């Protein structure tokens, strides 16, 4: 029997290590080879925390500049989540959607029609089979490829796109294993193309507000963050976690025992703390609760067991990881998508001068906080939230991130998770237009995604600390944070074009 079916991934890790298997840069699947997560996970590195040496001839991309362009031409693969990116791209005047791709012909045609209606130009359509994307990325008139497919496709699609000279934007995961994350870093450095993940949660209104305050020293010395992706995704009969469209997502609950969706929370806290630029993840310790969610959902909705009948759900419902950073800070990262509780991303940042907590938003400000943003006459104490509700809303509006101030009006119209999808897309594409490094680099993509594998490894080994690989290969020690928010005094926002909006 396949040990993965019994949840015993460790046997495969050993097998993979013994066989010296590697999934190198050149290993792009042939037209017949559909990537299989269970197979990929067999190839996980034995020494998960080790730094892979930089291949000769490659160089870092953390401050990569490319040729500035007036127009950015994009191709989008995977047109469920990808619809949000189509909507955003057609609302951005310096972006042209040149091609769309999905296995499902009707999805590709529908999105091509959205583009035609909005811009008057019909994009090329690639559909009908799972390798149609290869023809799309081979075009010579595409600058950026969006990858919004199931995760197992991300690495092959991204590497091929970069090899062919495109920047690759990936939907919140860049690798199923630490090995795959290294492959993505190596490809980005080899081909000198950007490969960020599309971590839209870094562009939420609250998150940008906190980042704005943090960059102005409002929180003092940072010590601790808490974040999560807690989202009851069990769904309803006919559209549940057990139905056809969710097969690839559910499969990870049969393969892994850790945090199945780490980047929404971890990305945000990493940006607050400057992880990868001044600080770095050092090790992670992970624990998991028992599993009830999917098994009980199956008993309730599919007593005949249907398509999931042979699946054994090995992942505990609540995954909790503590990450320690090189500067000694701590971060709690949680995941649970099968329990009855309200959505939360946690979003807590604690420093010596203030603490922000999200869901609902609250801000505690130390009596000695010297920030010029505060009214010196205001009475404060450290035992209660200084601002919450309407009072906090007012303070947030007054201190809104400059990026958001400019984009909020458009973003609300375009939509997509309250506008944050558009803010992110606009910002990423505008960075490519200017030829500067986007706010998230391939090193961020790799270190945030790697928690998938690292948390699993920790749980399987009795919650031992697992060394965090340093994808910057020491670069974090000297790198300065990117100007997602320029340090005050804020330079002009002229890089957001207004004339044609
Ligand atoms: N950032 C966010 O808020 C957010 C929200 C939802 C999903 N996501 C991410 O988006 C990605 C897709 O998630 P989803 O929920 O849309 O998945 P989905 O399974 O609902 O849709 C995936 C789409 O990709 C297509 N596809 C699959 N393999 C393909 C291939 N080889 N070539 C072309 N098309 C292919 C499918 O036909 C389908 O239309 C994932 O990475 C997920 O994590 C992010």
Strand proportion: 15-25%
Tell me the structural class.
alpha/beta
Give the low-confidence spans: 1-30, 486-501
Q: Which hetero ligands occur in this complex?
A: nicotinamide-adenine-dinucleotide
Give the overall form: globular
Order of strands side by side in the largest beta sheet?
Answer: 15-14-13-12-6-11-10-9-16
Number of helices: 16
Structure overview:
With 501 residues, the protein is of the alpha/beta class. Helices cover 33% and strands 15% of the residues. It is built from 16 helices and 16 strands. The chain has a nine-stranded mixed beta sheet. It has a five-stranded parallel beta sheet with strand order 3-2-1-4-5, sandwiched between helices. Helix 7 runs antiparallel to helix 15. The N terminus and C terminus are likely disordered. The protein binds nicotinamide-adenine-dinucleotide. The site of nicotinamide-adenine-dinucleotide (NAD) has 25 residues, from strand 2.
Which properties best describe this structure?
15% strand, alpha/beta, binds nicotinamide-adenine-dinucleotide, five-stranded parallel beta sheet, disordered C terminus, 501 residues, single chain
């Amino acid at each position: 029997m396949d040990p993965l079916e019994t949840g015993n991934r460790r046997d495969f890790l050993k097998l993979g290590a013994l066989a010296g298997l590697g999934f190198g840069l050149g290993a792009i699947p042939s037209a017949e080879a559909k990537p299989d997560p269970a197979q990929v996970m067999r190839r996980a590195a034995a020494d998960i925390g080790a730094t892979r040496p930089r291949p000769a001839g490659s160089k870092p991309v953390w401050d990569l500049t490319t040729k500035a362009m007036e127009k950015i031409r994009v191709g989008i693969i995977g047109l469920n989540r990808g619809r949000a990116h189509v909507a955003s791209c057609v609302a951005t005047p310096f972006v042209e959607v040149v091609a769309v791709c999905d296995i499902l012909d009707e999805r590709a045609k529908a999105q091509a029609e959205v583009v035609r209606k909005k811009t008057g130009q019909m994009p090329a359509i690639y559909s009908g089979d799972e390798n149609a994307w290869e023809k799309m990325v081979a075009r010579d008139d595409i600058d950026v490829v969006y990858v919004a497919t199931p995760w197992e496709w991300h690495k092959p699609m991204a590497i091929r796109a970069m090899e062919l000279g495109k920047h690759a934007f990936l939907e919140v995961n860049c690798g199923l294993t630490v090995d795959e994350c290294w492959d993505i870093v190596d490809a980005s450095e080899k081909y000198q193309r950007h490969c960020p993940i599309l971590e839209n949660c870094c562009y939420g209104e609250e998150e940008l507000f906190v980042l704005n305050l943090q960059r102005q020293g409002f929180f003092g010395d940072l010590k601790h963050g808490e974040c999560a992706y807690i989202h009851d995704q069990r769904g309803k009969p006919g559209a549940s976690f057990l139905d056809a469209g969710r097969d690839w997502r559910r499969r990870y609950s049969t393969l892994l025992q850790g945090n199945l969706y780490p980047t929404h929370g971890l990305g945000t806290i990493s940006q607050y703390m400057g992880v990868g630029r001044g600080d770095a993840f050092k090790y992670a310790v992970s624990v998991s609760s028992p599993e009830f969610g999917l098994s009980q959902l199956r008993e309730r909705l599919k007593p005949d067991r249907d398509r999931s009948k042979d699946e054994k759900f090995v992942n505990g419902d609540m995954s909790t990881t503590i990450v320690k950073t090189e500067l000694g800070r701590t971060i709690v990262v949680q995941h649970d998508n099968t329990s009855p509780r309200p959505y939360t991303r946690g979003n807590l940042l604690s420093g010596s001068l203030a603490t922000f907590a999200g869901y609902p938003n609250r801000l505690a400000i130390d009596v000695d906080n010297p920030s010029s943003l505060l009214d010196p006459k205001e009475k404060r104490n450290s035992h209660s939230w200084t601002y919450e509700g309407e009072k906090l809303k007012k303070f947030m509006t007054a201190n809104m991130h400059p990026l958001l101030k400019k984009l909020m009006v458009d973003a609300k119209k375009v939509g997509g998770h309250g506008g944050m999808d558009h803010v992110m897309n606009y910002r990423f594409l505008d960075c490519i237009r200017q030829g500067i490094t986007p706010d998230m680099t391939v090193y961020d993509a790799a270190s945030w995604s790697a928690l998938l594998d690292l948390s699993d490894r920790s749980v399987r080994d009795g919650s031992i600390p697992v060394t965090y690989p340093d994808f910057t290969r020491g670069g974090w020690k000297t790198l300065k944070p990117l100007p997602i928010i320029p340090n005050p005094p804020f330079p002009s926002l002229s890089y957001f074009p207004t004339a044609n909006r």
